[in-house]
Amino acid sequence: MRNATLSIALACLLLWLPGCPAPNTTPTASAGPDQQAILGATVTLDGSASSDADGDTLGFQWRFTTRPDGSLSSLANAGTAQPTFVPDQPGLYVLSLTVLDTLTSSPSDSVSITVTGNLATVPDLAGLTEAEAGTALSNAGLSLGESSTQSSSSVPAGQVLGQDPVADSEVLPGSNVDIVISTGPGSVSVPDVTGQSQAEAETAITGAGLTVGNVTQAEDQAIPEGEVISQSIAPGTVVDEGTAIDLVISAGAPIDLQRSNTFNLRESLNDPVVENVLRPNAAAVDTTNNRVFITALLTPHVAIYDTLTGEISGTLDSGFVLPSKKTPFVAPGGTALYVMDENTAMLARIDIDTNTVTATAAVGDGFIDMTIDNGTNTLYLARTASPGLLLLNATTLVETGSTADLDGVAGDLKFDAAGSRLFVLDTVQVDRNGSLRIFDTASNTVTSTISFDLPGSGDSSAQQVDYDDANQRFFIRGDNGLGVYDIDGSNPRSLPTPSGFDFIDMTYGPADDRLLALGVSTTAADTVVARGTRVFAFNPNPGQVTSPIDMTDLGEGNMRLALDSSADTLLSPDSTTGVLWALEAAPFPITADGIELGLNIDQVAVVGDALFASSRFGNNRLFRLTPDDGTLTIFQSGQWPAPFRVRGTATPTLLVLNAWDSTLQEFSTDANPMGGASTNTGFPVGTTERLPDLALRPDGTNAAIAYPEFGQVRVVGIDSGNEIAVLDVPNAIIGDGMSSKGQLQVYFNQGAANLLYVFDRAQAMLHRYDTADGYALLGSTDLSVGLGNMNDAPETDWLFHDADQDHLYVGPLRIDPLTGEATGDTLAVGQVIRGLDASRNLYWVVSQTDSDTGFTVAINTINRADNTMAATELTLAGTHPIAPEFAFDTANRRFFVAYPTTTGIEEYGY
To answer: For residue 378, what pLDDT is reported?
Structure first.
């Protein structure tokens, strides 16, 4: 039976008889494409393309037929369609694949794997010719693939514009690299962009395949600001793709400064004074006509106060324009007023009835006092220079004589008409021994000397003499005491000095036999000019009560007393608030009225549509002026509101430094400004002529306050009032007695740098502090050589930082804002940047020239890019005793010029 089955199977195989199964088909092996590989990288073989026509399941048999010498690599998963191996030697690996079905196996198929040591790096072919690119590829073990062309405005024709793969790619050795060869720029038609905005023009140019070249500005009367005036290549011109087109953009009409409006704060307030009498300093009484003449430090005008009506009746003009100390004296009978100007050492005689200066004379330096002998029409003038006493004709002011007897000792004068003698206080004392010289006016000689012991304690010197002819006694004021003496110097009585006060003036009232003295509070640091000034009344009679009676607090800066006994009125001009205090004087001062004599403008600033100004010599006022309709709002600050700064932009406020009070106060800037509480700055109350400065950090958090007399800057938190840092300025000159050129100026970097700048003008030193490191001092730069002679430059606001351009200026010098070193770029000597018009790329600079009659002031526009003049200079009319203040409103293309001593404001448009 078994043999029969085998026979049938054999017959089916040989003859394929009916009923036999179909014959088996031999399968086909496919070992996949040859490969390249990297030494140590896994190689995956692929026999998945192998097949069997009968659809039988295949089995796989892989084996190495060739391997490099020394290779021990072995297959993993050799019985699968995709085995792997890791080549361990470079060279050729050949593997064979045989597949099997259930009955037969296929012929074998082979695959070659070429293994190299590492990948090839594709070189950078940019800028090479096609031939050069082929050589570079060959040298790198690669091959040049396809080459195509493309136009380019930046790559010359014939050079490689692009490649694939890109340069520095890692590929297998022998790989192809395709390249793109430039055919040079294509042709493009230039579009017409004139009359378009700058943004529209730039979009049209780049959209046409061109580039935007240099963009400059030019003034044009016809083309609106911001539109294209011209283009460097005419519209329609066919040019290479990528060609640069330069544009000229209109800056609008040429800058033609025109005064468009004028304002005067005093006139708006219906000021009763005919002329501004700014910062009153001394007074002279005309008892015949019950009037008092008050001179001022900052203005030439002399106010006339009527002691009977209690009103200002008019003004006189002294003729002295520049700021200076002026001392008045009324001739007996009240026909003429004499004014001594200590700045020019000139004496002027003014006819009171006609308000004309009838005579002037140069009397030399060292003026101390003057008086008149009406009988001989002689004016006596005492001075420290030789000769110590000048005799002048009281009408013509021609010198009629002098005496050397009083050289070095001439001081305060009192004339005794009854005795035709002149009392001259000795200005030289030794060991607190004083003397009074009696000068005979008939012989013009010193006939006798009265000696006395000076009142007071410590280092005291005689300052002032007054005389009581009815009781034949005289009064001496020392530095810190008052003394009463009989005419021969006997029977001395010292009047008690109130604790905490020094006497700065005195006057005798014969009507009620009282000695009135002006006292000023003293401080531990001798930096305060005057603070808490009071009047004290004494009974000078022996055996009676001589204790002082403290009458009235007169404010801050009262320096002199004037008594009209016939009207029982005591007057004291207050130099800090700008008022005249009038006190009822009999039997003692019991009331005080402040009569405003003038206003000034310390600073102006634009906030929105309003102009803000401050007046420290006009009763501490702040002003809000709306130039468009002339609306004026007045609000009150603390003592001496100077300077102030604008804080914030969305809802700006006014941060005011009340300089005398040493406080910060913030005000709203809307139509009805309201002030908040004051914050103490940490400085002592009271200040000097060396004004402080104020700077706000750009984020509005901190304020830096610099007081030059202390040589110190304090940084405080504006909202918290907390002290953040106290900076002692290196080598600063401290104390009083310097001009405003001894100021310290502070300024924060307006950009990203965390820097506070402190400029010491007296030393010409710029100091830099790191606000991010506890305000540590980073360095100091001596700018004295670069600044040179800047005495004619504006007094304040020398520091200016243009954050967009990162330009820092100190006066005319451009400074590297990070190192503080001069860059070599400079404006003209005397020029100081005070404003920026970014839209026109202009700086507004102010310069002033000093002369005998005042300052000549000019305003220039400077190109922001190269510091060249951009427009015609505007020179303000006339000369100015005090340089004007400026506020630039670039949003509305206008600026304001404020004249400090007249309170006039001019508006200019452009």
So the answer is: 94
Burial label, 879 (beta-carbon count in 10 A; 0-12, 13-18, 19+): middle
Residue 829 gets the label, from left (phi > 0), alpha (psi -120 to 50) or beta, of: beta
As a whole number of angstroms, the distance between CA 124 and CA 55 comes to 52
Name which of 35, 32, 58, 57 is nearest 46 in CA terms.
Answer: 32
Decide if 599 contacts 578 (C-beta within 8 A).
yes
In DSSP terms, 238 is beta-bridged to 189
Alpha helix ranges (H) inside 763-901 = 784-787
Contact 440, 421 (CB under 8 A): yes
705 pLDDT above the threshold of 80: yes
Compute the half-sphere exposure of residue 714: CA atoms within 13 Å on the CB side of its CA. Answer: 19
Non-local CB neighbours of 876 within 8 Å, separated by 6+ positions: 856, 857, 858, 859, 884, 897
**CA proximity to 671, closest of 714, 626, 724, 715:** 626
Q: What is the pTM of this model?
A: 0.74
- With contact defined as beta carbons under 8 Å apart, do 424 and 434 qualify? no
DSSP state for residue 141 in the 8-state scheme = T
With tokens 């502070």, the residue in question is 746
Q: Which residue has the tokens 């072995």?
A: 74
Mean pLDDT of the chain: 87
- Identify any residues that bridge with 448 across adjacent strands, giving them in sequence order: 438
Distance CA 235, CA 430 (A): 94
Q: 319 near 360, Cβ under 8 Å?
A: yes
- Contact call for residues 162 and 124 (beta carbons, < 8 A): no
Q: Which DSSP string corresponds to 250-301?
A: E--S----EEEEEEEHHHHTT-SSSS---SEEEEEEETTTTEEEEEESS-SE
